[in-house]
């Protein structure tokens, strides 16, 4: 028996799912193939650094997954027939027995603006910023984590530019009071003008616009027979298994799953990785003939870079509400860097710390009832 497991997408969620599944199953019994549009793993949480002109050394997926048993295939996914269990790519078709859908999300970037949702977008912004003259205006739209990081990184690397940030609310309104003050102090130190309570329409203003006002799930799933939510994410149960197709799992920004308080989990790296672990554990358990376990999904912290030597780490409750505790300045910058490094190192763990690989004893049940037990 060779159970074919295919993972679509080699971002944080896809890479973690692939390495954990391969670690948990015997190679003769199961094959794990990771399909990604490019050969490199994209550290999405570092794209603001790339855009600002810093050298972020790329990590090849082959190297990242070396020793895990995962086979990588560089191809762009063009379609999915979930009823026929077939993936279509620009380099041929792939049939699967179990699919992990981890195609992530894309930035909402109106025409004429720049985005940090992918590596290509970060490189285009980097090239454009390099062509600007002193005093040229750069406006970042969006007051979320990505917007704060983009504005501060650009202002720090190009202090000669006129950098501003426009947000529909108050700057850092969701943070604890002390953390919010520190963000404002960092913006003042870097000379970033803040436009609060502002709704920006595409095409407004002069100069360069960097659009960081939200993400949309990959549109591929919505064009299939998979059951999706209104925002295009695949509806899954507590083990990240599709509500309509039990041989399909979804993780990361592609998954619609309820978190604390019954609210849908947000599109965030810190949520995608635990979802990947959850899906991988469930797949291994079911293929090994065991009842899958699950654990509640929740939040721990929010990490915000404010340049290379400054930042804020906001500790949060399980439902993402800010606690009073936070880190700031250099301590927060070191903490954020450690989190970024951990996100990479934990993909490699299977080769560093081998664990017992289980035999595939049967195909998983065609009903997900046990996930709700």
UniProtKB/TrEMBL annotation:
Its cofactor is FAD. Residues 4-280 form the FAD/NAD(P)-binding domain. This is NAD(P)/FAD-dependent oxidoreductase. It holds the Pfam family Pyr_redox_2. InterPro entries: FAD/NAD-bd_sf, FAD/NAD-binding_dom, NADH-Q_oxidoreductase. Belongs to the NADH dehydrogenase family. Its EC number is 1.6.5.-. One of its GO terms (molecular function) is oxidoreductase activity. It comes from the Bacteria. Keywords: FAD, Flavoprotein, Oxidoreductase.
């Amino acid at each position: 028996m060779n159970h074919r497991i295919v993972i679509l997408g080699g971002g944080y969620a896809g890479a973690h799912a692939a390495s954990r599944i391969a670690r948990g199953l015997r190679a003769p019994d199961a094959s794990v193939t990771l399909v990604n549009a490019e050969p490199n793993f994209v550290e999405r949480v570092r794209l603001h650094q790339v855009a600002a002109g810093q050298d972020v050394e790329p990590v090849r997926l082959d190297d990242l997954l070396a020793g895990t048993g995962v086979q990588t295939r560089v191809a762009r996914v063009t379609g999915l027939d979930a009823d026929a269990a077939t993936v279509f790519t620009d380099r041929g078709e792939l049939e699967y027995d179990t699919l992990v859908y981890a195609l992530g999300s894309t930035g909402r970037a109106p025409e004429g603006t720049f985005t940090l949702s992918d590596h290509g977008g970060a490189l285009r912004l980097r090239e454009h910023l390099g062509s600007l003259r002193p005093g040229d205006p750069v406006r970042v739209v969006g007051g979320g984590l990505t917007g704060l990081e983009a504005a501060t990184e650009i202002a720090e690397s190009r202090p000669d530019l006129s950098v501003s940030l426009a947000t529909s609310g108050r700057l850092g309104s969701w943070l604890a009071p002390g953390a919010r003050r520190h963000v404002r102090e960092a913006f003042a130190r870097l000379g970033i003008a803040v436009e609060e309570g502002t709704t920006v329409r595409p095409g407004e203003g002069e100069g360069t616009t960097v659009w960081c006002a939200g993400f949309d799930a990959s549109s591929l799933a919505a064009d299939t027979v998979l059951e999706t939510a209104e925002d295009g994410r695949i509806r899954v149960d507590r083990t990240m298994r599709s509500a309509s197709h039990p041989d399909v799992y979804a993780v990361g920004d592609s998954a619609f799953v309820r978190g604390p308080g019954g609210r849908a989990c947000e599109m965030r790296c810190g949520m995608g990785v635990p979802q990947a672990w959850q899906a991988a554990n469930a797949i291994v358990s079911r293929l090994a003939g065991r009842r899958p376990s699950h654990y509640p999904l929740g939040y721990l912290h929010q990490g915000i870079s404010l340049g290379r030597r400054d930042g804020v780490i906001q500790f949060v409750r399980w439902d993402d509400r800010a606690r009073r505790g936070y880190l700031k300045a250099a301590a927060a910058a070191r903490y954020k860097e450690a989190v970024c490094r951990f996100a990479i190192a934990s993909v490699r763990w299977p080769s560093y710390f081998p664990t017992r690989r289980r035999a595939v004893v049967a195909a998983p049940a065609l009903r997900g009832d046990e996930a709700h037990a």
